[in-house]
Write a structure and sequence with these properties.
The chain folds into two domains: 21-102 and 193-274, P-loop containing nucleotide triphosphate hydrolases (Rossmann fold), CATH 3.40.50.300; 113-191, no CATH class. α5 crosses α6. The radius of gyration is 19 Å and the shape is globular. The strands form two sheets. A six-stranded mixed beta sheet has the order 6-7-8-3-9-10, with helices on both faces. It has a four-stranded antiparallel beta sheet with strand order 2-1-4-5, with helices on one face. With 274 residues, it is of the alpha/beta class. It has helices at 7-16, 65-72, 95-100, 118-123, 140-160, 176-189, 206-223, 234-237, 258-263, 265-271, and strands spanning 25-36, 39-50, 54-58, 80-85, 88-89, 103-105, 194-198, 226-230, 243-248, 251-256. The structure holds adenosine-5'-triphosphate and magnesium ion (MG).
């Protein structure tokens, strides 16, 4: 496969010899900052995520986790620093470009089409739907097969997130936990290379929360999707992630395997309110 290198990246490669974020790394964040007035929401964060890994991002309320996701997904532009995804520099690109590259996020508070059913919400996130092009819409045979395939896949995804029994409900007529699951379903239907999940298990009962994480492991193993997951429920998260980053006041203050992080005095300190 020919590796297309944009101009900006070529300059960088010429300077350093090779892209700094490639090979086994799918995502790299390098010295990224985002201030809101005097609030240092993200204050010089660097991290990297290996392909096919499941990595956690934890930290107390207001430590900058969601802001970091917003920066990675293109909802904010960093004040400084660089973000690389799958060999491409993505900071400054609009969210839909980043989404098209296969980096898809879910929101801490689910955002859905309230006038659509759960099933329709999942279906609408499929990429490149041919029936949506005004010309192709005139020629049914161009897209009829694809529509059936999209519907079949969306139904399977509803199985993965355990929502088939409420598929026909309006998206406003399900529980908060089921809304989170619908969002995850929407994200999966976009055929992502990597998913950023902001508190996927919030408001979900412990059994279902574990079920979601078991499915995340399965999706990684079977489809090779990489996961970066914000989660406050550490007792669940730590059983499934390969690696954890800990944020506090906009900075990464610790990182390592879950067992190492759990014993790190600095982490214990911030979680005990120190
Ligand atoms: N759009 C914004 N404008 C101003 N300040 C913001 C904005 N977004 C976030 N902040 C501030 O940046 C800091 C980090 O917020 P962020 O939402 O990233 O934290 P978080 O780690 O996701 O917290 P939580 O665990 O409660 O979701 C907070 O002080 C927050 O008030
Ligand atoms: Mg948050």
């Amino acid at each position: 496969m020919v590796f297309q290198v944009p101009l900006l990246d070529r300059k960088r490669i010429a300077e350093s010899g090779e892209p700094s974020c490639s090979g086994d790394k799918i995502l790299c964040v390098e010295k990224v900052k985002k201030y809101f007035g005097g609030v240092r929401a993200v204050d010089g964060v660097s991290l990297s995520i290996p392909r096919r890994s499941i990595v956690g991002l934890i930290g107390p309320n207001g430590s900058g986790k969601t802001t970091l996701f917003n920066l990675i997904a293109g909802y904010y532009k960093p004040d400084s620093g660089e973000i690389w995804f799958d060999g491409k520099r993505i900071d400054g690109l609009p969210p839909y470009e980043i989404y098209k590259y296969g980096l898809v996020r879910t929101f801490q508070t689910p955002r859905m089409w309230t006038s659509l059913t759960v099933f329709e919400n999942v279906i609408t996130s499929a990429k490149d739907q041919r029936g949506e092009s005004p010309l192709a819409a005139l020629v049914k045979k161009l897209w009829a097969g694809q529509e059936r395939e999209i519907a079949r896949r969306a139904w399977n995804i509803l199985g993965v997130v355990q929502l088939q029994h409420v598929a026909a409900n309006m998206s406003t007529d399900i529980s908060g936990g089921q809304m989170k699951l619908t969002e995850i379903g929407r994200a999966l239907n976009a055929e992502p290379k990597m998913l950023l999940l902001d508190e996927p298990a919030a408001g979900v009962n412990p059994t279902l929360a574990r079920n979601i994480f078991e499915n995340i492991v399965k999706l990684r193993d079977e489809l090779g999707i990489t996961f970066f997951i914000i989660e406050h429920r550490l007792e669940i998260l730590f059983d499934y992630v390969d690696y954890v980053y800990v944020m506090h006041q906009g900075r990464i203050i610790a990182q390592g395997k879950p067992a190492e992080v759990a014993e790190n005095p600095a982490v214990v300190d911030i979680y005990m309110g120190g």
